[in-house]
Write a structure and sequence with these properties.
The protein is α/β, with parallel strands linked by helices. The protein is built from eight helices and 19 strands. The strands form three sheets. A seven-stranded mixed β-sheet has the order 7-8-9-10-11-18-19. The longest helix is centred in the middle third of the chain and has 17 residues. The structure holds zinc ion (2 copies). The site of one zinc ion (ZN) has 5 residues, from loops. One zinc ion binds next to loops.
């Protein structure tokens, strides 16, 4: 029912690809990150909250059809529906059913509730396709509440000591989570253009996040007592100078690795990820009840072996074009804005 082709994950019966890497006729897009939402497809099908993000990143003139969560369409006998993946706003697992057989393509997902995106729902299926970005036991993330409490304390301490706070996270997903949880009483919240662009797009879909876009005017007066939210591309850039004196933090699952903070040359690391850690992956795999687990994107071989040995399931390693880390969930065009 599902094939892994060079273009991406393919359902021949419905003639649709999921998150294809090369231009195809019909593409189902799990979410707006650039390793999933690629340019050049004839038709896009995505969750309604991904629509404006896709238009921002791929062009206003693309042809997009949207679904709500749990809404089903049928293409040539294949029932296709989207279900919350909890990864970023609008992110969806794709469920495909044909003649009683069910596949779920999870895209990127996480089980922890980030308070912004619709929380992950496990979907019963025969075959489950999962990523494995953090598919090792060393990745054991804290729930978000305590991390955001730490972040607000860090920002408050910086403010008390006369420093601005610069918080680095992807412009789509992480930035909105941060904005949702930042205490606005600590100081003025300022946004890098890439973050402000995403927020503007989301506003069209009825979602509103705090923060003021940084424009040329913004730095006319000295910037003090502020929290600046910016993407990875801002690290080490001259753009940061106008916020001096500042302290800078990176938000990423990779901050769980020893030495990661120093490698980025930043003052603070928050282990904040929109992907599953090891225990979340295991939870999802078990909850789907699937007998076949296809492991992509990350520690495929190791995690597939774990699933076979620990749970006695059929687990297969799938090679993907973007075998890299979630730091690549960056759109080079919009991130530079
Ligand atoms: Zn993603
Ligand atoms: Zn991804």
């Amino acid at each position: 029912m599902i094939e892994f082709r060079k273009e991406g994950i393919y359902c021949p019966q419905a003639d649709v690809y999921i998150d294809p890497w090369y231009p195809v006729k019909q593409a189902i897009i799990t979410h707006g990150h650039s390793d999933h939402a690629r340019w050049g497809h004839h038709n896009y099908l995505c969750h309604m909250l991904s629509k404006e993000i896709l238009k921002l990143r791929l062009g206003k003139d693309i042809t997009i059809q949207t679904l709500e969560y749990n809404e089903t369409i049928t293409i040539n006998g294949v029932k296709i529906s989207m279900h919350p993946a909890g990864h970023i706003i609008g992110s969806a697992q794709v469920r495909l059913e044909y003649k009683g057989e069910v596949w779920v393509v999870s895209g990127d997902y996480k089980v922890f509730d980030d308070g912004v995106s619709m929380p992950f729902e496990p979907i019963k299926c025969n075959s489950f396709i999962t990523e494995s970005t953090f598919g090792l036991p060393i990745y054991n993330f804290e729930p978000f509440e305590s991390i955001y409490a730490d972040m607000n304390t860090w920002c408050q301490n910086n403010a008390n000591e006369g420093f601005n706070s610069v918080i680095i996270g992807y412009s789509l997903g992480k930035a909105q989570n941060i904005l949702q949880h930042l205490n606005p009483e600590i100081g003025k919240v300022l946004l890098h253009g890439a973050v402000a662009n995403i927020n503007d797009a989301l506003r069209i879909s009825g979602l509103d996040f705090q923060g003021e876009r940084i424009i040329a005017e913004t730095s006319k007066n000295k910037i003090t007592n502020s929290i600046i939210v910016a993407p990875m591309s801002a690290i080490g850039s001259p753009w940061l100078r106008k916020f001096k004196p500042y302290r800078i933090a990176v938000c990423s699952g990779w901050m769980a690795l020893r030495g990661a903070r120093r490698r980025y040359g930043v003052d603070k690391g928050f282990v904040l990820s929109d992907h599953c850690d090891f225990k979340q992956l295991n939870y999802a795999v078990k909850e789907t009840g699937a007998e076949n687990i296809y492991v992509t994107h990350g520690y495929q071989a190791i995690y597939a072996k774990w699933v076979r040995e620990m749970y006695g399931l059929n687990a297969f390693e799938v090679k993907t074009l973007f075998d890299s880390n979630p730091l690549d969930d960056i759109d080079p065009v919009t991130e530079e804005a």
